[in-house]
Design goal:
By secondary structure, the chain is mostly helical. The chain contains 25 helices and 5 strands.
């Protein structure tokens, strides 16, 4: 790349970074739209630093810890300026900028040259889903970075079999292990890609395959071992993150019963595939013909192993099909966003390689490829931008995302419009007004994670990560202070499990002091039983 193009690329990347960061601030503090999972991860980091009982294990053992760990330095910098809630969105914006750069790199590795390369990068960078998830603090952007790093490394390994490429592939899986549990699909498909390349080039050299797989798997296995040991030490089970009371398996239990929204997909492979495919085609309408064209192109070029560039996103999509079938998926639209890079890379394979230059018709084929095939392929991938937008704003598709549009409309049309977290803000303000000492309010942060963050005195709360939380909750009727519970909950609350009367205001030892739309604050009066 000549210096002029290099400077132009850097300028475009800088502008995209400014766009993503500005969108993150506008979404968080302009529209006051904060996605719950993002908020919860920031709160986990917040408890490590600012809770009544600060310690590193407060980061939690349900979600993979890396996003919350990376929020720690951001909280230290942002909280003094009143911007603590920007920690997650700022992180996702930076991951997304890295993804744009990695997309350009992978397209260059594939061999895309000329105007199609910046056009494909632009289709990715300006995709409405990519832009939204660059701004909302969710982990899809970070996990996409791991996918892109693995894809780039596998393609380099396919081209050069460089030890550095193999090491980078292993580190990409280690990174993914810190972010999301779909990593198991990446590890499996990465090992399969390495074995496929070995089979093509070194069949029979078993020690070589053994060494390659060990080098690839070692970083991931190390991170998995550390995470499992941490779960064992603190939670009593090395698989607590997979099967604990707040795990994905526990939270999706509702979908494995008749009458639930996703019950028709449970143990029914056909409906599960149809459900996933419909959402994949929403992100990339031309996905199937693009994959067929890419497969035909590689077959004609006799380069079947170059398909490793498609393996990682395809594996994650298949993982989510399995999760639908197993009844362990919420079916969110975002689970199928990986069809965007899958479609773009399939298009890149078609654009970069074209028909083989053989025979007297090669010039005619080359012209047809340049003036017909490439424009058609580029138009096909460009369709992903409007169709993705349709999916995001439609409640039938973007069940989690269309609420963001509602927030934006409300903020634009009604000053001071209520937000999703208004009840939490109101309850935090009320409790602050009581001027309570440290450790006065028992709270289950599986539901109430936002309240201590909105409070000016977070140490007044006894939260789920405190060392003495279990003991205090077990003897709650004898506690001199307050207890805060939700009026309804989708997760198992330790407090409400032990004291269901708090939800209906029938516990004789607790007197209702404050009620908001979603929260009940009780003052505990041990003498009430007498």
């Amino acid at each position: 790349m000549n210096p002029l193009r290099r400077h132009a690329a850097r300028l475009c990347l800088g502008l995209i970074a400014l766009l993503y960061v500005a969108a993150a601030w506008a979404l968080t503090y302009g529209a006051r739209s904060i996605q719950g999972d993002n908020f919860s991860r920031i709160a986990n980091a917040f408890y490590v630093l600012y809770s009544r009982d600060p310690h590193l294990a407060a980061v939690g053992f349900v979600w993979n810890p890396l996003p919350s760990l990376l929020d720690l330095p951001l909280l230290v910098v942002l909280r003094p300026f009143g911007l603590a809630l920007l920690a997650g969105p700022l992180q996702s914006a930076l991951w997304s900028v890295a993804n744009v750069a990695l997309m350009a790199r992978i397209l260059r590795q594939i061999g895309v040259a000329g105007w199609p390369r910046p056009a494909l990068v632009a289709v990715y960078a300006l995709n409405p889903f990519v832009a939204l998830y660059a701004a909302n603090g969710m982990t899809e952007a970070a996990f996409m970075t791991a996918i892109f790093l693995l894809t780039s490394a596998l393609f380099s390994w396919h081209a050069t079999e460089s030890p550095g490429a193999l090491l980078m592939a292993g580190l990409a899986c280690a990174l993914a292990m810190g972010i999301r549990y779909e990593v198991f699909a990446l590890v499996l498909i990465g090992a399969m890609a390495i074995a496929l390349i070995w089979w093509e080039r070194h069949w029979g050299d078993w020690p070589r395959l053994e060494g390659q797989l060990l080098a690839f798997l070692a970083p991931f296995l190390y991170v998995l071992l550390v995470w499992g040991l941490a779960n064992w030490m603190f939670m009593g089970s090395p698989t607590f993150f997979l099967d604990g009371p707040s795990s994905n398996a526990a939270q999706t239990e509702q979908f494995r019963h008749p009458g639930s929204e996703l019950w028709p997909l449970y143990r029914h492979l056909g409906p599960a595939i149809s459900f996933a495919l419909a959402r994949c085609l929403l992100f990339m309408p031309g996905l199937i013909p693009l994959l067929v064209l890419a497969a035909g192109t590689l077959a004609l070029r006799r380069r079947p192993t170059a398909a490793v560039v498609l393996f990682a996103p395809a594996a994650v999509l298949l993982f989510h099909v399995y999760y639908l079938y197993a009844g362990q998926s919420f079916g969110w639209l975002r689970y199928y966003c990986y069809s965007v890079p899958l479609g773009l890379w399939a298009a890149a394979l078609v654009v970069a390689h074209g028909p083989p230059p053989s025979g007297t018709r090669s010039r005619r084929r080359a012209l047809a490829h340049r003036w017909i095939t490439i424009p058609l392929v580029m138009a096909t991938v460009a369709l992903s931008v409007p169709t993705t937008l349709v999916g995001l704003v439609g409640p039938a598709w973007g069940r989690a995302e269309h609420g963001v549009l509602d927030d934006l409309v409300e903020r634009a049309t009604a000053a001071g419009a209520a937000t999703r977290w208004s009840d939490e803000q109101a309850m935090a303000a009320y409790i602050d007004g009581l001027r309570l000492p440290r450790g006065s309010v028992a709270l289950d942060t599986q539901d109430g994670f936002a309240i201590p963050m909105y409070s000016h005195a977070p140490a007044q709360f006894i939260v789920s990560s405190d060392h003495d939380y279990v003991g205090i909750v077990a003897a709650l009727p004898l506690f001199h202070g307050y207890v805060l519970v939700p009026r309804s909950s989708l997760v198992v609350s330790p407090i409400l499990s032990l004291y269901p009367g708090l939800r209906s205001n029938t516990a004789r030892w607790a007197r209702l002091q404050r009620r908001t739309g979603r929260w009940l604050l009780y003052r505990i009066a041990p003498s009430a039983d007498g």
